[in-house]
Automatic annotation (TrEMBL), chain A:
SMART domains: AAA (SM00382). GO terms for molecular function: ATP binding; ATP hydrolysis activity; L-isoleucine transmembrane transporter activity; L-phenylalanine transmembrane transporter activity; L-valine transmembrane transporter activity. GO terms for cellular component: plasma membrane. Residues 8-249 form the ABC transporter domain. GO terms for biological process: D-alanine transmembrane transport; L-alanine transport; L-isoleucine import across plasma membrane; L-valine import across plasma membrane. It comes from Bradyrhizobium manausense. It comes from the Bacteria. SUPFAM superfamilies: P-loop containing nucleoside triphosphate hydrolases (SSF52540). This is ABC transporter. It holds the Pfam family ABC_tran. Keywords: ATP-binding, Nucleotide-binding, Transport.
TrEMBL record, chain B:
It comes from Bradyrhizobium manausense. This is ABC transporter permease. One of its GO terms (molecular function) is branched-chain amino acid transmembrane transporter activity. CDD domains: TM_PBP1_LivH_like, TM_PBP1_LivM_like. It is found in: Cell membrane. It comes from the Bacteria. InterPro entries: ABC_transp_permease (IPR001851), BCAA_transport_permease (IPR052157), LivM-like (IPR043428).
Length: 263, 629
């Protein structure tokens, strides 16, 4: 066993609703700077798994450790304080605030200025907010109200917000859902680039196999709550079990896939 | 024993009418998401019209025909109101419909006096139910027995209507997801209109059926609306069965509360409501509601601090206001002081509502607690004015800390209802704990110290405090805390995901708002020289809501303008006309329809238009054509 614990270590994660085992004994780990895709057909337990990692949901049993420290049972905001940024499947932003203000809120929270009643918030971390927006290519939108943005821009804003606490780990739930194909590639390219530069571990779920195979360093496959495969994109692509259970009749090689083909 | 049975039956009879009105409100809210404040007014008109018709017609058919005809007539009025007023404001900011229906209520209160006179009207007995039934030596009016049967019958009819008819299915579907129903090609306009008509019909029927039991009078709307809110909340919004059970529960609490706990009879119902909301926010029979879909494309202008020019202008306005004592008489100065105090009150609620997105329906509680705090300190402890002014608001602060802790666990209309319940609890205590609060007689003789006694000095004091409070809250809006508060308003999910403890932030905002309202109340006690339970009553809470909405809930400082306009207009109208409510209500309805963004919101739109119209071709009017290309 190595002395340095992995960035993220998941062990025996289990959750059931009534008689349905949504997630059964899932274990995996993630290194810093690594991009790990969590895939599986609809109903495979991806979202349940994800929610247990970010604190939205409590596992029945099993553990999640971030750099050796237990995060199981912690609230989302506590997990964020431990250095985990996240984006949502359906974007969640502060719609009446400007793009810059959205980032500033995260920075204010990170700087523990939330109960500062007298300071001038527009000036707090203004430069830092600008830098983050530049990083995701949103500088030109800084003063636009967030409610006006196109969906792809909202996704990029979420990425900037997620990066505000200098995270060690990014959790991205279907980061490219609802985006145009070209935007998808751009967003994931950007994410991968930032992850490598800052040595951030990224865990993402995704339905778009083009995105998954192009950007993931490693892939884990869930089916009916259990982990059925793990490996490099090439290994997973070649795994007959994955092909049979998840990908169906090899449509992948023609560059397409059918969502929720099995399960 | 027989006495208790009779008491129980009386409670059941009262429940029938309450159930009719509450089910109507519940249905309307379920589908249109409108908190129909005018529901009590429709109930009242139903009673008045039924009174007239039953007097005019004769015989058994005359009475029953009159009751039903009255309900139908009021339902028609409801249709008119829905088509002319509500249709225009479904997409206005949340709760703006409340302001509109409140305006209607004000108008109706004056209109019924105009038409039927100010005296109580005692209606006819129902033919066939004139006598009483003997029950072990106790008399039960036979009409009560009729009502006891009627309640479940109406429940059954409504149940059939909702389970067995196409319309009922649509209504239930719309209650769950009205966007989806619209997407399925249902004509939403007429669905809403018909739902509103049915709801109003039920309210009016409830009122009409009351005439053999109670005298008809022009304040019956406010009394019923509070009880109806309680019933709907306990039963669960949108649940008919829940409304029935809760109506029975509330009526029995009222019937037995007065026997068993005479000292706290009023409080009892609100205690139950508060407990239900805390334990089961969606009510006994309601279902936890999925968060409503946010209207896409919010058109809110990003808030920004005042520019230096605007600061100068505000300062100039303040200086002008401070010069008032040079040319105004004592009466005008007293009015000025009152307006300044209401500015404090309004900006405190505005902070909670606009910045925090938490619309309190019981904000007067903290205003009144501040006033009572001062009265206790001044009268019981005999402390000097300056100490009282500093410490009195702490009572408001403590009240807000305790109640706010529970209230911020909820959101939206449930938050509103819980704050209403808390306010009514505080009001009941002030009203019934006579030995300490003086009850209805209040606490008299709270006079300012000599340095603040003259109208001009007091005016300067009130104006100064109002200015300080407004500036401080404005600073808070643009402080990191203000950003965090707005963040929790916009998205609790995202706030938590960036490390913000949303409940704690909202609780803090609640305490700030409550304390600030307490400061207003403290000054108010000295202005009036007395405190009464009315100082924390529901009509004062509604006043605060109206001031905020009138000024513009989406603005930073709309509360200031809203308070000045509303209060000045109110005071002026009362001095000018006997029909002040009619005019004021009409004015509010007009504002709602013509300027749905409130006064300040409207000014902002105008200013923006002017700014944008300088480069040619970019005016607002040209926009649709551009986007059509």
């Amino acid at each position: 066993m190595s002395l340095v614990p992995p960035l993220l270590a998941v062990e025996g994660l289990t959750k059931s609703y009534g008689g349905i085992h949504a997630v059964r004994g899932v274990s995996f780990s993630l290194r810093s700077g690594e991009i790990l895709a969590l895939i599986g057909p609809n109903g495979a337990g991806k979202s349940t798994c994800f929610d247990m990692l970010n604190g939205q949901n409590k596992p029945d049993s099993g553990q999640v450790r971030l750099l050796g420290e237990e995060t199981t049972g912690k609230k989302p905001r506590e997990i964020w304080r431990m250095g985990v940024g996240r984006t949502f499947q359906i974007t969640a932003t502060f719609a009446t605030m400007t793009v810059r203000e959205n980032v500033q809120v995260a920075l204010i929270s990170h700087g523990r200025q939330l109960f500062n009643f007298w300071g001038s918030a527009p000036d707090v971390d203004r430069n830092e907010a600008g830098r983050l927006l530049e990083l995701v290519g949103m500088s030109g939108y800084a003063d636009r109200p967030c409610g006006e943005l196109a969906y792809g821009d909202l996704k990029r804003l979420e990425l900037a917000v997620a990066l505000a606490n200098d995270p060690k780990l990014l959790l991205m739930d279907e980061p490219t859902a609802g985006m145009a194909p070209r935007e998808r590639v751009e967003l994931m390219r950007l994410t991968a680039q930032i992850a490598k530069e800052k040595s951030i571990g990224v865990l993402f779920t995704e339905h778009d196999m083009d995105v998954v195979f192009e950007h993931a360093d490693r892939i884990i496959v869930l089916n009916r709550g259990t982990l059925i495969a793990e490996g490099s994109p090439a290994e997973v692509r070649g795994n007959p079990q994955v092909q049979a259970i998840y990908l169906g009749e090899g449509l992948l090689y023609e560059g397409g896939h059918r969502e929720g083909a099995s399960a | 024993m027989a006495f208790y049975v009779v008491q129980f039956l009386t409670g059941l009879a009262s429940a029938a009418s309450l159930f009719l009105v509450a089910s109507g409100l519940s249905i309307i809210f379920g589908v249109t998401r409108i908190v129909n404040f005018a529901h009590g007014a429709f109930y009242m008109i139903g009673a008045y019209i039924a009174f007239t018709l039953t007097e005019r017609f004769s015989g058994a058919f005359g009475f029953w025909g009159g009751v039903v005809a009255a309900a139908l007539a009021v339902a028609l009025i409801g249709v008119l109101v829905e088509m002319v007023l509500l249709r225009r404001i479904y997409h206005a900011p949340e709760l703006f419909q409340l302001l509109g229906t409140f305006g209607l209520t004000l108008m109706v209160e004056d209109l019924v006096v105009l038409i039927w006179g100010p005296d109580d009207l005692v209606g006819r007995r129902a033919p066939g139910f004139k006598g009483a039934v003997d029950f072990f030596g106790q008399n039960i009016p036979s009409y009560d027995l009729f009502l006891i049967v009627l309640g479940p019958v109406v429940l059954g009819i409504l149940w059939l209507l909702f389970q067995r008819t196409r319309w009922g299915v649509l209504v239930r579907a719309a209650t769950q997801d009205r966007d989806m129903v619209a997407a399925l090609g249902v004509n939403q306009k007429w669905l809403f209109t018909s739902v509103f008509a049915v709801g109003v019909f039920l309210a009016a029927l409830g009122g009409a059926l009351q005439i053999p039991r109670d005298a008809v009078h022009h304040a019956m709307d406010l009394r019923i609306i509070v009880e109806v809110f309680v019933v709907v909340v306990i039963g669960g919004l949108g649940s008919i069965v829940g409304a029935f059970v809760a109506a029975v529960l509330v009526s029995e609490l009222n019937a037995f509360g007065i026997l068993i706990f005479p000292k706290i009879s009023i409080i009892l119902v609100f205690l139950v409501m508060a407990v239900v909301l805390i334990v089961r926010p969606w009510g006994l029979f309601g279902k936890p509601e999925a968060a409503a879909r946010k209207t896409p494309g919010l058109t809110v202008n990003p808030w920004r601090p005042l520019t230096s020019n605007e600061r100068l202008a505000s300062l100039a306005a303040l200086v002008v206001a401070a010069l008032l004592p040079l040319f105004a008489g004592n009466y005008a100065l007293t009015v000025g002081s009152e307006i300044a105090i209401f500015v404090i009150f309004a900006v405190s609620l505005h902070f909670l509502m606009s910045v925090g997105g938490l619309a309190s329906f019981g904000h007067a509680a903290y205003f009144g607690l501040g006033a009572y705090g001062v009265a206790f300190l001044a009268k019981l402890a005999g402390l000097p004015m300056i100490v009282c002014l500093l410490l009195g608001p702490l009572l408001g602060c403590m009240g807000a800390a305790v109640f706010g802790f529970f209230a911020v666990q909820l959101s939206g209309v449930y938050f509103a209802m819980l704050t209403l319940a808390f306010a009514q609890i505080v009001w009941s205590i002030a009203f019934q704990w006579v030995s300490v609060t003086g009850g209805d007689n209040g606490i008299l003789g709270v006079w300012p110290a000599s340095w603040a006694a003259s109208p001009s000095h007091f005016y300067w004091l009130a104006l100064g405090v109002a200015a300080l409070v407004t500036i401080a809250l404005r600073i808070a809006v643009f402080s990191p805390f203000g950003y965090a508060l707005r963040a929790t308003r916009d998205s609790v999910l995202r706030s938590e995901a960036v490390g913000i403890d949303a409940k704690r932030i909202q609780w803090t905002a609640f305490v700030i708002a409550g304390t600030t309202a307490g400061i207003g109340g403290a000054l108010f006690a000295y202005l009036k020289g007395s405190v009464f339970p009315d100082n924390l009553g529901i009509s004062l809470s509604v006043d605060a809501l109206v001031m905020v909405l009138l000024g513009g809930v989406e603005t930073v400082s709309g509360g200031v303008i809203g308070a000045i306009v509303y209060k000045a207009l109110n005071i002026w109208l009362v001095s000018q006309t006997d029909l002040s409510k009619l005019v004021l209500g009409g004015f509010i309805v007009l504002i709602v329809v013509v300027f749905p963004k409130g006064i300040v919101g409207m000014l902002e739109v105008l200013a923006q238009r002017r700014r944008k119209s300088s480069p040619p071709g970019s005016s607002l009017l040209a926009k649709p054509i551009e986007s059509a290309e």
